[in-house]
Amino acid sequence: xxxxxxxxxxxxxxxxxxxxxxxxxxxxxxxxxxxxxxxxxxxxxxxxxxxxxxxxxxxxxxxxxxxxxxxxxxxxxxxxxxxxxxxxxxxxxxxxxxxxxxxxxxxxxxxxxxxxxxxxxxxxxxxxxxxxxxxxxxxxxxxxxxxxxxxxxxxxxxxxxxxxxxxxxxxxxxxxxxxxxxxxxxxxxxxxxxxxxxxxxxxxxxxxxxxxxxxxxxxxxxxxxxxxxxxxxxxxxxxxxxxxxxxxxxxxxxxxxxxxxxxxxxxxxxxxxxxxxxxxxxxxxxxxxxxxxxxxxxxxxxxxxxxxxxxxxxxxxxxxxxxxxxxxxxxxxxxxxxxxxxxxxxxxxxxxxxxxxxxxx
Amino acid sequence: xxxxxxxxxxxxxxxxxxxxxxxxxxxxxxxxxxxxxxxxxxxxxxxxxxxxxxxxxxxxxxxxxxxxxxxxxxxxxxxxxxxxxxxxxxxxxxxxxxxxxxxxxxxxxxxxxxxxxxxxxxxxxxxxxxxxxxxxxxxxxxxxxxxxxxxxxxxxxxxxxxxxxxxxxxxxxxxxxxxxxxxxxxxxxxxxxxxxxxxxxxxxxxxxxxxxxxxxxxxxxxxxxxxxxxxxxxxxxxxxxxxxxxxxxxxxxxxxxxxxxxxxxx
Lengths: 361, 266
Description:
heterodimer
């Protein structure tokens, strides 16, 4: 896979002097051609600023930004082979659907025949043929979304930027548009850079995800890696539910570490790359609630006293208190008509093999 | 929970409202009614007639000053609007800069300075320029009216700009439009209702202004309102009522157009 976007040492500072705000720090990113790449993080983490820097709406304060090998950091948005789907769609209200879709090609000075045929093709692609002559105010939110997509795809950009494009849609429409986006990306082969704060959306749609917080990229990897091998406490906490256990290191070996669990039992835990704690040092270990199973008291890796349990249908979340007072949540699959455990009762907790991970703090 | 406050329930509200409307419109109604009087009186009704309208239309002077008023208003409002568009863009489509409020105040200066003060100031400057250049054409009136109309043209344009989503211009730039194309294809068409409203308002203001014209005009440069003012010093016949009624109708036409345009926004 060739590299489409290469970002090196990029930073963005808003304001000056005492009022200066560092929106992006030391961003290094390489996005491959045809990749569905997601910038994920809570609001204010800098993901939209990074998208706007790639689009050219903001210029970076430092660093380099290359698109298809060309340095574009100093170029305006109209000089970059990049188009954007805006959060509020930003359709031109005085133009018809077809005129909206054809606008980019018109600005590029394409002949009318080519514009007309591309607009027709785009209308087909987003299944909006019947709406070509409508004004944006005369179509629904979901249809506006499709027009915004078609308008951004019509000039055949190398990169399509999507700024939380699904956040204004209701749940059902959002699910529909998620698969629609995947289909469009497959059919066009264009690199998609997608911004969202919705971790589920990121996990289901992306080839790779960059998790951002406070203007930095904390971890970049496949959805599988981000979920199963978070290297950072923030990432582990932001993506899915996680149990954090503070435990002392009992021993170290080539494969990883052995930690002492609350209650005294020992368990193997994987170490992140480059981290070598010393024996006796307290570290943070993480495990997902669905990676532990219930056992008879004393038969698992540790025991816990049931505090509450919440029934979710497919599973039940059981909140337990461990021997040293730390909390632990276990997600039990309701494979049968299982009764909720009694609060106050003691249960054993068995950790799945290889599921316990130590985090870099 | 307390019942919602309704000013219409206050004692005397109806009476005050009726009295206010009478004060506002009764004199105008009387003026209009007597423009159709068959006789020459402003107080005794002698039957319906259109004779004063015929007289007004046949009056060469009335024709001359009306045409002068209309073209002066059109040129001044046109120039004021052309200047107000960039002024509105420069005070809304940029990040806040020091002195922005000051510039806003300066643009709207004619709204705050008493017209008589502006008039006297113009009189002094125009007299000085006339003496030094020997020129005494219509340019003085055109420039004075233009300057006076700018805030009236500026305010509706700025109001319209503030309702426009700046993301639209960003989207145009994203779709390869250069700044001029973004203005030409996106901002300007969406601004048209504001520009039309600004022109209408400027036109009516120029048409109506008496004080500034009175101080700036040279001999033979009367506009309709200054001509009417001059006539009032002589015998008042219902011909003046007829002219005033027509003038009122013209003003109402433009003000109504202004409201219709501004209401349609969005």
